[in-house]
Design goal:
Helix 1 runs antiparallel to helix 2 (37-50). The protein is mainly alpha-helical and 223 residues long. It is elongated and about 75 Å long. Helices cover 83% and strands 0% of the residues.
Length: 223
């Protein structure tokens, strides 16, 4: 379960990193509204933060894994629509960006809620509670995703012929659109696929806790 979660958050984080950074270029060149870049990104960020209480509440209604699947699935659909429509009106881009923020919020909230479950699974499996190591590895995944995103974006911009000066060619604009929507779409699709096979649900988690408690009582009684 831990490595499924690790792979899922790494894929989603890389996709989000590239999508967010490329959005700067999409708004500036495809939508021809460089002055609106900050507004687009800020409103998407606010949407992600504002959706946290909603997704936290949803844990009492549906499974944590389902919240993740809703987030990654929603992001996939939203990115596909964006790629097909290729909006150039800033208000439309903002609307879709807000949806992205809500979907991203679901993934982030689910990730931090599911990480402790993988710690307890590992404790049940091995007898050792390695929460420091597991949380550290997951934190590394988030940091690494940013670095990977920057590296991939730099290479991709060069490959599509981006020039910091002057107008961009049609090929470059198409490349920027693909980086903004297609790459994140496939990254979130991969994350969705990973978490589809995540095995820990409420019933299994309760059994894990009961087994760990029983083993701890047995150890104490034997001392």
């Amino acid at each position: 379960p831990f490595w499924i979660l690790f792979t899922g958050i790494l894929a989603a984080s890389v996709g989000n990193s590239i999508g967010t950074k490329t959005m700067v270029y999409y708004v500036s060149y495809n939508a021809e509204a460089p002055g609106s870049v900050s507004l687009v990104l800020t409103l998407g960020l606010f949407a992600a933060g504002g959706a946290v209480p909603f997704w936290t509440f949803m844990f009492s209604v549906i499974k944590k894994r389902t919240v993740w699947l809703l987030g990654t699935g929603g992001f996939f659909i939203n990115s596909l629509i964006l790629y097909v429509l290729s909006p150039t009106v800033v208000s439309t881009v903002i609307g879709f960006r807000i949806v992205d923020g809500v979907c991203l919020s679901a993934v982030i909230v689910a990730f931090w809620a599911m990480t402790p479950d993988t710690v307890e699974y590992g404790e049940w499996k091995s007898g050792d509670r390695d929460e420091g190591i597991l949380f550290g590895i997951n934190e590394f995944a988030l940091k690494a995703a940013t670095g990977i995103g920057v590296g991939v974006l730099g290479f991709a911009l060069g490959a599509i012929g981006y020039s910091a000066q002057g107008d961009q060619s049609v090929t470059t604009l198409e490349g920027i659109k693909a980086l903004s929507f297609l790459f994140p779409m496939f990254a979130y699709a991969f994350s969705f696929t990973c978490l589809y096979f995540y095995p820990i649900d409420i019933k299994l988690h309760q059994r894990l806790l009961a087994a760990i408690a029983y083993r701890n009582r047995s150890r104490t009684a034997g001392v």
